[in-house]
Design goal:
The chain folds into 3 domains: 3-42 and 273-323, no CATH class; 46-260, 3-Layer(aba) Sandwich (Rossmann fold), CATH 3.40.50.300; 344-569, no CATH class. Helices cover 55% and strands 10% of the residues. It contains 21 helices and 11 strands. The chain has helices at residues 3-21, 28-42, 58-66, 112-115, 137-140, 156-165, 184-196, 212-227, 242-251, 254-260, 262-299, 303-323, 356-378, 380-389, 394-403, 406-412, 414-430, 452-475, 488-498, 502-530, 539-553; strands spanning 46-51, 82-87, 92-97, 103-106, 127-134, 143-147, 171-177, 199-205, 236-239, 346-348, 482-484. It has a 9-stranded mixed β-sheet with strand order 4-3-5-2-6-1-7-8-9, sandwiched between helices. A two-stranded parallel ribbon has the order 10-11. The radius of gyration is 31 Å and the shape is elongated.
Length: 569
């Protein structure tokens, strides 16, 4: 099971709980029980608490795991405030205050004003904890880093704050270093961690500052010290250079990353999350949901509802059996935040329309209408041409109205209205004859073949598809190339233009990844909405409903709601 499969399994359990809630929407007890289960699913996250003395390189290690200089160094060790790192659509800080339940968003640059001893001595501002939100992919599936105040600093509240947070952690990373491994303060925190019976990973940082012999001696020393604590499972020790790992991540040098030691830590964290912690959480949720459904079944006397609950229990059993089946074989080790197959090209989403081609078409339409609506107002020849064509199609009529004025319509449309009135009178006379051709009425409708704006739309679309096709071919084999996202109707046109081959394959894979990501955002939003935890949603999740429709159907102002030439009469 990988992180994606784990999340999808949670969504599947949520669907079963929603189905149970729908059995009787007036049952308050049922609704409350369902919401409790959904809340546990919505709040699930992997709390990884990073602890250690100040100046051990905790923030540098976390930056290396996150793949960039995201977290400030030299700040957290000076505070008595816990700093968490979670996924967010943009880099910002959300402050949570003691006793009040208030949450305040502040720019990242203002973090120090709330978490440093200098700006917030003794935490007089009553900050419970600071959440750093980062648009980093590995955080999106539930990783939740907790950067604790440094142990052994001159501020006694630092150690107390760290120790108070220990029960909230799912696992711990103790960062020590080759300079002076396992200090007295670190021994104390190791004892507290052992009492939690949670998984511990030990990092010996700054391996680049010592010789191979010194590294071996320090490694042996730490191993022997850890044995004295009698952990239920001996913690694994990782020799790392966090600085070299961060440099390797930023330069995308996989060989240097392996040499830094970080890749081994990433793989072990991922294995623990997916093979141990995730399975434990899912097993707990299966048990709770089964107990809930069974208890509801015992309360029911109506056959129809009994059948509904039995069906849901069957769905839950099938889902659990599938989950416990043989695991798919991995094709290779995958680091945290990586995908096993990543398209060469990455997609950029057009902010207004989702699809870049839709945006290009809209721009062309409104440039044309901006001039044409003026010509319709003052130019009799343009008015006659407009009438001869039967006006605009239904979609473009209302787009015209949106940028025109009542006066503009009153001067532009008399010619067309007179012409249609005359045609209707003529057809009315024909209707009195046995062989009257009433089907000719439909030819009064403007279509894509007669609408002047449709001509502009089709030409703009043709040029945009041609540009997108050229860009996809140019991106073939180019690392880090960015392409514009397309809606499904326009993706069909681009792929048809590309034909078979790697450019089409990469474009399809990139769009598959984008739609899969959007689908997951839809599921996360729905789950957190049902659990009354909408404050946990990211900006992408809040916008997912609109983006999904734009990607699947195209922009509403580009695609007509019907093709009038195919209306059945």
């Amino acid at each position: 099971m990988d992180l994606k499969e784990y999340e999808q399994e949670k969504f599947a359990i949520a669907d079963i709980i929603r189905s149970a809630q729908a059995i009787d929407t007036k049952d308050d007890a049922l609704r409350s029980d369902c919401r409790d289960l959904l809340t546990r699913l919505a709040e699930d996250r992997f709390n990884l608490l990073v602890v250690g003395r100040f100046s051990r390189g905790k923030s540098t290690l976390m930056n290396a795991l996150l793949g960039g200089d995201h977290l400030p160094t030299g700040i957290v060790p000076l505070t008595s405030v816990i700093t968490t790192v979670r996924y967010g659509s943009q880099k910002q800080v959300v402050l949570n205050f003691n006793d009040s339940g208030l949450r305040r968003k502040v720019p990242f640059s203002q973090l120090a004003e709330y978490v440093t001893q200098q700006s917030n001595p003794g935490n007089i501002k009553h900050v419970a904890y600071a959440e750093i939100e980062l648009p980093v992919e590995m955080l999106r599936r539930g990783f939740f880093f907790v950067d604790s105040p440094g142990l052994g600093s001159s501020i006694p509240e630092n150690t107390q704050t760290t120790e108070q947070f220990l029960p909230e952690a799912d696992a711990f990373v103790l960062v020590t270093s080759y300079e002076s491994p396992l200090s007295e303060e670190e021994d104390r925190i190791l004892h507290r961690i052992r009492l939690t019976n949670k998984r511990l990973f030990v990092v010996l940082n700054k391996q680049d500052t010592v010789t191979a012999e010194e590294r071996s001696q320090a490694f042996k020393f730490v191993s022997e010290r850890l044995e004295r604590f009698s952990f239920s499972e001996t913690p694994r020790i990782f020799s790392i250079s966090a600085r070299e790992a961060l440099d390797a991540k930023q330069s995308e040098n996989e060989d240097s990353l392996k040499e830094s030691g970080l890749r081994s830590l990433e793989e072990e964290l991922l294995r623990f999350l997916t093979e141990e912690r995730a399975q434990s959480f899912l097993s707990n949720m299966y048990g709770r949901t089964t107990t809930f459904l069974t208890s509801r079944l015992r309360l029911e006397s109506e056959h129809e509802r009994e059948e509904a609950y039995n069906t849901l229990l069957g769905r839950l059993r099938d889902l659990r059996e599938k989950s416990l089946g043989p695991e798919a074989q991995s094709e290779g080790a995958v680091g945290i935040g990586q995908e096993s197959s990543v398209p060469v090209a990455t997609l950029q989403i057009e902010k207004r329309t989702g699809c870049w081609i839709c945006g290009s078409v809209l721009d062309a339409i409104f440039r044309f209408l901006g001039q044409y609506q003026y010509d319709l107002t003052i130019n009799p020849e343009t008015q006659r041409e407009h009438a001869r064509r039967g006006g605009f199609c239904s979609l473009h009529t209302w787009q015209y109205e949106n940028i025109s004025s009542p006066y503009g319509v009153c001067t532009a449309y008399p010619e067309l209205a007179h012409r249609i009135a005359g045609e209707l009178e003529r057809l009315a006379k024909e209707a009195s004859h046995p062989n009257g051709a009433l089907e000719n009425v439909k030819w009064l409708l403007a279509t894509a073949d007669t609408c002047r704006v449709c001509e502009v739309r089709l030409e703009a679309e043709r040029k945009a598809v041609e540009t997108a096709t050229d860009a996809a071919r140019d991106a073939d084999g180019t690392e880090g190339k960015h392409l514009q996202a397309c809606c499904l109707p326009h993706l069909v046109l681009v792929v048809e233009s590309l034909g078979t081959g790697r450019p089409a394959q990469n474009l399809l894979l990139a769009h598959a990844k984008l739609l899969e990501r959007t689908a997951e955002d839809l599921q996360r939003y729905a789950l957190r909405h049902d659990a009354l935890r909408r404050y946990l949603t990211s900006e992408e999740e809040r916008q997912a409903s609109q983006l999904a429709l734009l990607l699947l159907a195209g922009h509403r102002s580009v695609g007509a709601p019907w093709a009038v030439e195919f209306i059945a009469f």
